[in-house]
Design brief:
single chain; 173 residues; Rossmann fold; eight-stranded mixed β-sheet; 6 helices; 32% helix
Length: 173
């Protein structure tokens, strides 16, 4: 698959959300049906053979891809949200971002033991968010098949924080 149109559509936004950060804006991809379809298809092609049983999407942009990919894979979608946003009993994990700290939560009954899970988000930076989510998935007894991202910022070495979890990221910077 030709990744050049996806890469060309990603907009750099300097000094967002804080000075010194160059934000990779995927909204131009989302606004173009062919590019959005192509981005989702990358995940489907990579993971359909792996018998994924649930897609865990990380708030907020992971919801966009996660819901669509779960639908295309014929699986359920499990949201992982910022603290205090889920209405049922939750498990929580605190983690460090490249520009601060945060806490994420998952419903404690969201996943079954040994369920095969794909963790999906738009971007891998330092790896703290994905590592926290992988920890939550594992706490619930499910199996992380892979952590998938549209974009990886390789210079931040987030892949290292994910240890032995397989990482899929077709676009790298």
């Amino acid at each position: 698959m030709n990744l050049a149109p996806l890469q060309a559509a990603i907009r750099d936004v300097p000094d967002f959300p804080i000075p010194g950060i160059v934000f990779k804006d995927i909204t131009p991809i989302l606004a173009q049906p062919d590019l959005f379809r192509q981005a989702c298809q990358l995940f489907v092609d990579a993971f359909a053979p792996q018998r994924i049983e649930a897609v865990v999407g990380i708030e907020a942009r992971g919801f966009i891809f996660g819901g669509a990919v779960a639908h295309l894979l014929g699986t359920g979608f499990i949201p992982v949200r910022k603290q205090g946003k889920l209405p049922w009993k939750t498990r929580a994990a605190a983690y460090a971002l490249e520009y601060g700290t945060a806490t994420l939560e998952i419903h404690e009954d969201a996943l079954a033991p040994r369920q095969r899970v794909l963790i999906l988000d738009d971007l891998l930076a330092t790896g703290g968010t994905a590592a926290a989510v992988a920890g939550l998935v594992s706490e619930l007894g499910a199996q992380v098949v892979a952590c998938a991202f549209l974009i990886e910022l390789t210079f931040l070495k987030g892949r290292e924080k994910l240890g032995d979890y397989p990482v899929f990221a077709p676009l790298t910077y």
